[in-house]
Structure to design on (291 residues):
């Protein structure tokens, strides 16, 4: 394999990884491993592919092989920690992250991952302390700021959420992640249409991401004209307010013996009730799946 071909393959793999299209990169990586089974970079990249397939055991095995052939142990242990974290094996994840920190105690991204692990394990104070330490060490790291943002989303702190969304946008080069963060920023401000458009653009860039697809589906329903009456009802307080208003008006009109307006109000309420029961079903039948 010539140097030019290797460089081209490396660029293509990096591009696919950047977009989260790991399966598209897999054949190129497999070909590299056929050419050189001890290719440490290719072994690690294949570990990432296996993790995307949720074969975490195989991902760890390939990562260990990559480290045996000279791949960065800091990155390797960090990755292994992530594989354990994904399946809730927090003790094993902690051991892997601590192994990475033993090699480089001031690695901000590993410290941030350790902090987020502590958040998931329920140790909020330790999590915040570690995340703050990571920010001091690497204030412009995309990953550090992203994990701090996740912390404040978990804590439902809207002020901090907006602050760290701005921080991530200033540091990130990942277009899909940036669009997702901008969508969250609009959502926090109640700008539903703008949030939906950002999720749509992110999905077009990475149509394999099922999480973005699910969010897009949710925002489709929030912005679709079919749900306009429901959005109005939500703004005035929800179905309970509509029911109370109807009952008060019905009793008042009955007391005043205004039966024709009473019948009209009753028909309107029945139509609203039918609409509220069938709108979601109609949306699923006729609309869902369109971008």
């Amino acid at each position: 394999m010539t140097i030019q071909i290797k460089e081209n393959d490396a660029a293509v793999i990096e591009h696919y990884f950047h977009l989260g299209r790991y399966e598209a990169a897999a054949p190129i990586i497999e070909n590299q491993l056929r050419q050189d089974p001890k290719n440490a970079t290719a072994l690690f990249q294949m570990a990432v592919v296996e993790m995307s397939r949720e074969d975490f055991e195989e991902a760890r095995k390939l990562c260990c092989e990559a480290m045996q052939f000279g791949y960065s142990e800091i990155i390797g242990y960090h990755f292994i920690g992530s594989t354990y974290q994904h399946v809730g094996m927090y003790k094993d994840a902690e051991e892997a992250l601590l192994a990475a920190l033993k090699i480089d105690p001031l690695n901000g991204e590993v410290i941030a991952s350790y902090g987020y692990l502590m958040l998931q394990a329920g140790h909020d104070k330790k999590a915040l302390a570690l995340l703050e330490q990571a920010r001091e060490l690497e204030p412009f790291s995309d990953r550090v700021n992203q994990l701090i943002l996740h912390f404040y989303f978990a804590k439902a702190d809207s002020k901090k959420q907006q602050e760290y969304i701005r921080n991530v946008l200033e540091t990130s080069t990942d277009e899909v992640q940036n669009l997702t963060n901008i969508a969250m920023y609009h959502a926090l401000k109640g700008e539903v249409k703008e949030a939906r458009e950002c999720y749509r653009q992110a999905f077009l860039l990475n149509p394999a991401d099922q999480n973005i697809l699910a969010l897009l589906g949710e925002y489709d329903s929030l912005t679709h004209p079919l749900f306009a009456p429901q959005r109005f009802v939500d703004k005035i307080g929800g179905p309970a307010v509509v029911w109370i208003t109807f009952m008060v008006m019905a009793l008042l009109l009955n007391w005043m013996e205004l039966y024709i307006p009473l019948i009209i109000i009753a028909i309107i309420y029945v139509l609203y009730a039918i609409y509220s029961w069938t709108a979601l079903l109609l949306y699923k039948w006729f609309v869902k799946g369109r971008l």
